[in-house]
Structure formats: C-alpha cells, structure tokens
Amino acid sequence: MSNIYFSAENLYLCLILQKYKHYVCDQKQARLLIYTPNTMKLSERIEALATLGSRIGSLTQKEQEELSQKAIGYNNWHTAENIELAFKGATTYLQKEKLKQWTKHYHIKEEPSPKTIGIVMAGNIPLVGLHDLITVLISGHKALVKLSSQDPFLIKVLIEELISIEPAFAEKIQLTEQLKEMDAVIATGSDNTARYFNYYFSKIPHIIRQNRSSCAILNGNENPSDLSALGKDIFQYFGLGCRNISKLYVPKDYNFPHLIKELEGFQEVIHHHKYANNYDYNKSIYLVNKVPHYDNGFLLLKESEDLVSPISVVYYETYQDENNLNSLLKKQENKIQCMVSKDGWYENSLPFGKSQQPELWDYADGVDTLKFVCEL
After folding, report:
1. Segment 158-184, tens digit of pLDDT
2. What is the pTM (predicted TM-score) of this model?
3. Rounded Cα gap, residues 126 and 211, in angstroms
4. Averaged over 137-164, what is the pLDDT?
5. Whose CA, among 141, 245, 286, 351, lies 20 to 30 Å from 4?
6. How far is CA 81 from the centre of its chain?
7. Dihedrals phi, psi of 253, to nearest 5 degrees
C-alpha cells in the first residue's frame, strides 16, 4: 500500500486507477491509497471486521443521532433506539476473538478462488442483512448486494467504513439493483417472495429464507424479572424481527394478569404512530367480532394455534404437560426461528431477554450460511 497526495499532476493517474478500482480516496487526509489487488488472508479479514466493530462501538452520541435521522427517512420503524440496539448487536459479534472462534470450525482457504455471492437483504429491522455480508466477506468470496429499500442507508455506511479500514474490500463488495452473473445467492424475504426466489435462482446454489417467528415457553414459575426480560423479546424492534416473540405457550389456567402487569414497563411503544395504528386496528377487529382477548392498553393477547401474529398482538396456546408441549412445537418447527424460556430450561431455547442477541453462529432458519459459502 502506498500514499499519493492529491495534486494536479496525479489527477490523470486518479482517473486511470478509478477505471481499474486499484485505489481508494481518503478525502479526510486528501490522499490516494494505491494498492495492488491481492487475496486477503483470513487473519486480515478478521482484523478489518473487528476494527469495524470497534469503530461502530466508538460512535459518539451525536454521530449516532445524525445516522439515525438519515436512516429514519427511509423507514419510520427504524427509530434511534432501535438503531442503537442494532449497533450494539454488531459490536457484540464483531470482535476478534468471536470472529476467530466462529471461523475455526470451517475450512476457509487462505487464498480461495473467489466466487460471487448475491445477497438479497431484508429491511424489517436495522442492519438485519449485515450477518450475511460478513459471512460472505470472511469466507474470501465477493458480495453482490441488493440492499432493501427499507434499510439502504446504514448498511452502505458500514460498507464504506469497512473499505476505509481495508481498501482491498473495495473489490469484494458491489452494490446492485439487479442480481446477475453470480455463482450463488442468499435471499431473505416473505413467503410470497420466497416462491419467486426459488424459481428465479433455481439454477444456482441458494439459501432462500421466508417468514419465521419465535415463541416463548412459560411454566408459571417465572418471577417479575423473568417476565420483564420476556418483554424485551416481545417489544424490541416493535416485534418486527423474526427473532421477536409472537407466540406464548402457557400451561392451562395460566395467570395472565400477572404477565400483563409485568409488561407495563414497555408501554412507550404505543407512542409510535405506526405501532399505535396497528394496535387500534387489531383491537377494533377483535371488539367488533367479539373475539376474546386480553388488552393492557398497548398489547393484545389472543388465543390461537397460529405462530405468526400481527404487530401489537401476541398469540398464546395452552398445553397440558411437557409431552403435549413437545407435540405442539413439533407442528411449528419449520416456522420457528428461536425459542426462549426461563433460564433456557426448555431444550434448545434461550433465556428470556436474549432472543435479539444472536451470536455469529446462530444462523437464520438453522441453515449454516458460512458452511454454504465455504463449500462453493
């Protein structure tokens, strides 16, 4: 890597280098960073991604507010609080030791023959597509990224920051509006778009994700702090994430007033106009149709066998015993993203309050994305 400071003499050189993408402009220091394209080692990729995590974590309050204001312009659901939560999540797993721990279980070639991997990102919550991007980059492949119209700004900011940390990533990431000329694809969408994706990408290796949701398992022994932690799993990101709790499995004769009382600390969600509109609409439907439900003024609890509930609604279903519970969960296993329970007592569940804190190895839909890209 070498530095060339801006001047009239090197303007022509700048134009030539731009054609071949062998430079990055560092405007803050008024210089060109010239490099010869090469294959980054895994250790270098880890170092760059860990540095990105550190830089996200060192954002000042003012910087976060400025980023949030711009991001909210694309999606009103992406509030400053939710963006801060997403940033904290990114800094949690973009740590050198965690990146090493994650990658040591895979055969990642130091000098791979890079493939081009298309990524169709979702935008339901801030930075939801970041994990797929990190997975492709750490494997040594190239990422062809179609950003979501609901979250186009923050991901782009992080990409630019990553390239400023390690200019070699400039040749590893390309943003596009139309995916073509790629070797594989990772696409996230709804059940409807998944059918389209499966048809459109049928001839190349692919991971296609569709609607999933998460559930909580209660046994009646939960204390107030447990139920308050469960509230985070329900209300963070307004319940829009696939890891948000949309369904409760409770024992027969469960004490719902106790649960409702402990969720009162989350009533601020009703002050968001979009959430309030959903709450008012769903409440009016239940009242007009005389559907039995619980209502605490900002959340509706309704009995249903379905897993995925509307915004502002959480479904519940009762079970007789653990065998009955196992049977009910078995029916929904292909639609469940994750489960939570008190201290994670139920097999393969997380403790309350942890559903929106996935590790690098907690793969969406249970599909090992890093294994997928490493085996291409």
Report:
1. 999 999 999 999 999 999 999 999 999
2. 0.88
3. 17
4. 97
5. 141
6. 15
7. 65, 35
φ and ψ of 307, to 5 deg: -100, -45
Q: Identify the domain containing residue 262 by its residue range.
A: 213-351
pLDDT above 60 (res 35): no
Statement to judge: residues 269 and 169 lie in one domain: no
Which residues are CB-neighbours of 63 under 8 A, at least 6 positions away?
A: none
The predicted pLDDT at position 208 comes to 96
Same domain, 206 and 59: yes
d(Cα 319, Cα 109) in Å, to the nearest integer? 49
pLDDT category at 229 given cuts 50, 70, 90 is very high
Q: List the helix and strand counts (H, then E) for the chain.
A: 13, 15
Positive/negative CA dihedral, 196, 198, 204, 206: positive
Find where tokens 């970041």 sit: 130
Q: What is the DSSP string of 154-216?
A: HHHHHHHHHHHH-GGGGGTEEE-SS--S-SEEEEE--HHHHHHHHHHTTTS-EEEE---EEEE
